[in-house]
Amino acid sequence: MGEKDLLPEDFIGILDRYELQALHIEPYKMVYRVEGRDGFFALKEIKFPEDEFCYIYGAMEHLAAHGFSAINRTIPTRDGYPYALWKGKRYALSRWIGGREADYSRRGDLKTAARTLAALHQASEGYFPPPWEGRIKWGTWQSSMEDKMNQLLDFKHGVRRIKRKSNFDLIFLSSVDYYISECIKALELLDKSAYDQINQKEAARQFFCHHDFAHHNVIIDEQGQGYVIDFDYCISDLRCHDLGSLMLRVLKRSGWDQNQALLALKYYRQVRKVSSKERDVLQSFLRFPQDFWQVAFACYVEQNQSEERLLRKLQTWVLDKPLREKGLHKLAKLI
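-> structure tokens emitted (335 positions)
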């Protein structure tokens, strides 16, 4: 029996597009882990339109060309294409990044993650992407916040008209007014900040964001080096978007301990300076109740998750409300 006989037929067709002697393949989370004669690789189906994938591929290549190589860079096919086409589907191959997922509750991991993010942002400068409107987010924070606030208002009015309300509906109604008021506060903070000025400067210098800097997308190897994977959601936007997202993840993981968020900011600033004007913009980002809107949107629009799971998420936000308020209030004085 030959080595290729150990691989499913479809994967033989895909992997034959590469200079790769594959021995074994198995599913791993959202990708396939490929064992080859010269190491391990990740194979992933591309579910974006080709033009949109070009934005993602181009962003990663830009980082690599500007000194940031700590990414799962796409390996070209034998013909030099960034993806393999097989039976109408596209697949991307990259080196497997060995290590463990970051744990943002561990100070050392948080330091590595924050410093790695700042280095990524520095290297992102000057990326002029292929046009893909959905990825270009310059100057959109206000309209995005307003749209989501208005959706919460629409959900509220719609749920009130329901005669037989679910547990989700009742809990949502008990907290929606508070979170609408948080939307208003976030918009007021944004209006008082230098958002337009910062946006204009960063757009001119063409930075971009990873846009999904979750702990599982930061891999730390045995030497303590941080790597960033999964650029599927990268966008052209303020670097504060990523930084604020990291700080929020740390806040939620720590029970809204403002000191942990300040650590993330401190470590990030060891690599890239964050001006006082940027910190004002961060205040708006941190205040906006993105997760509350997200769980409501998932329930009332997307409707692709179980009610039990969504209810757990919603209950978390309701229970965390006092801690969230206290943590953000303290953070606003210290940031």
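Residues 1-6 have pLDDT under 50 and may be disordered.
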